[in-house]
Amino acid sequence: xxxxxxxxxxxxxLSPDGKVEPTAVSDETLAKSGFYWRxxxxxxxxxxxxxxxxxxxxxxxxxxxxxxxxxGGLELQASADGYPVEGELNLAGFNEDxxxxxxxxxxxxxxxxxxPYRLALAWQVHGDNIRTVKNAEEAGDSDERADAVISGLxxxxxxxxxxxxxxxxxxxxENMAFAAVHAGWRGTALGIVGxxxxxxxxxxxxxxxxxxxxxxxxxxxxAYEIGHDVIDAFAEKFSTGGKYFRETRPGHALVDLHxxxxxxxxxxxxGAGNIPTAPFCTISRVDLFFSYRIxxxxxxxxxxxxxxxxxxxxx
Length: 315
Known about the structure:
This protein is α+β, with helices and mostly antiparallel strands. Helices cover 24% and strands 25% of the residues. The strands form three sheets. Strands 2-3-4-16-9-6 form a six-stranded mixed sheet. The chain has a five-stranded mixed sheet with strand order 7-8-11-10-12. Strands 1-13-15-14 form a four-stranded antiparallel sheet.
């Protein structure tokens, strides 16, 4: 069971009159975190600089610069609440948006990169299965149930879809293998990010100490309240699972999935200095990102972000 402390923002992001005050992140703060913005044609993408400097094209999408409108006839309310209601870059969820719009949004997203790429995705199920893309024919959307995609192919961007869950991009500079991981609370409890590191080691010879692991925008620990089912799942899997929770009321707590995944990466052998973490909470920054927990309740549907990584290429 889970709920949001505030319907529109983290508790610390509310002004005295109850309006949303999104936490500002300066370019300097962003740079210190290891990220910067890239914009093209109205599309805004968050890029991890250490991954890019290691030879990996990468990006965490935002909701800006597309052709979708997911407010479901509630445009005036959405606009008043701070949501962009026109030109949304929804990149998945064919059951909640028109296919032609999603494909156009993907075209625009891929145009941000300096060379042509094909996406390699999976049917995500909040589990710990890992999909390996071994040839170009396996690129694209897939019916394979998995929550991580790994590859070493040229011209491929491994990607995961999120709208509050934690996206993690892994790059192995020595073997030029890469992975995209979707880690919600279930995937985090199952240890999917550590299992992906191990899969890269067995399939590509990856040395975890050389990995760069970028953690992208996700629901933050100031806004994401969960119930006893999540607390129990962590207690069962991790002896120190309790440190990721801050109690709010009996049987409920705020959870820090960013910290949980950082620790799992460290336990897998990734150096602490090689885990840049984006300083954004998707729940409190609906002006930039889709948030399932906010928008599904408010509008009955929400968009999906894409987080992608592949070998750098020249146009």
